[in-house]
Amino acid sequence: MRKRLHEIMDMPTEFHEDGAPEFPALPDEFNRNAPNAVPEEVKNRPRKIMLYFAAMGLFSVGLLFSSSPHTKDPTASVTPPPAAQASETPALIARPTAAVTMEPTAEPTQAPAATPDPVPEVDVIYYYRASLVYYAALNISVPDRVTSVSLRLTAPDDEDPALEIELTPEEIAGGYYRLRVGDRDDGFDANAYFAYHEEADLTMELRYTVSGDAGEKTHVETFAPSEELWIDWRYDSEEDIGGIAEWMYGEIFPNCFVVRLYESTDPEQQLIVGSDAGTLKNGGIAIAVSIDGRDIPSEDGTLYSAMYRYTDDDTVFYDYALVIPVPEDFPQHGTATMTLTRRLTDSGAVIVRSKTIEY
Q1: Residue from 161, 172, 306, 285 nearest 232 by CA
Q2: Which pTM does this prediction carry?
Q3: Of 28, 88, 96, 334, which sits most exposed with the smallest number of CB within 10 A?
Q4: pLDDT, tens digit, for every residue of 59-106?
Q5: Residue 322: which of 355, 297, 287, 291 has the closest Cα?
Q6: pLDDT at position 214, please?
Q7: Closest CA to 259 of 237, 280, 284, 231
Q8: How far is CA 342 from CA 83, 136, 335, 336, 350, in A?
Q9: How far is CA 197 from CA 160, 172, 204, 278, 321, in A?
């Protein structure tokens, strides 16, 4: 007959499972035979509310909770904890923890990324017209590798160019070029050209040559002008009353600095006193008037407007006049500096111009 384990190990009968019945049952001091505890259902009310809201499409649960590993996913299934065993919980004794000094880990040394050489090119900062005056500005990058730059302004189907310009080596080396023709401070006045040609937008042809390891390469690009409002900014004196200025402008504001805009289609044209370009939206214009180092306050300006249509044209036009009188505590006659700041409608480029006038 095969011996049982307690017989082989020669264990006393009171300590094996099939011990003699005359011995009383050992006390269940270790709760080996305790009944399994039924886990109590725990309702997660916040999660339930969130699911209701998500079901109704009020919000996306994924947007409200972080994906951090320390944050529980409210949409994850909840697993009940294992059945609790009724037992005594041993008291926990706090013990000091030895401080551990972490040696800093040396970061791997990375070789600096190679910076690519800048590409030599010519960018058009802006090209626009106001009435029949054309304005352009160029930016020349890596000018020491740009050997030539030229401009041609031509009308469609017309071989005779309105303007041809070849930039000098000094202009190329400067890295910036602004179109200025004749005795004008800025731009090219095409009125003389259109006196003998049919009016049309002048297309700008930009041609430039750059040098490289493979030799020289020529680039040719064409640009159509955007259209901006014509701006007239001046000082109206008493002598202008009844003269050619009144005939041109229709109304004179004696002893005032005036900015005039014509044929705007914007009923809310931005035309303000100041010099902060950051306050201007595209198409916005600001004027600052300084006398003896003092700026005329913005509240001293008054904006006038007139609305009208042309015959057989449904377009509504607006003329504007920003009138700035000389304040009483300023010199009534002398020298003033007018600074015009505008943000172009299409490109958003900011243009600042100044002039000094006697008043």
Answers
A1: 285
A2: 0.66
A3: 96
A4: 343 333 333 333 334 333 333 444 444 444 444 344 444 444 455 555
A5: 287
A6: 84
A7: 231
A8: 77, 15, 23, 20, 6
A9: 10, 32, 17, 40, 32
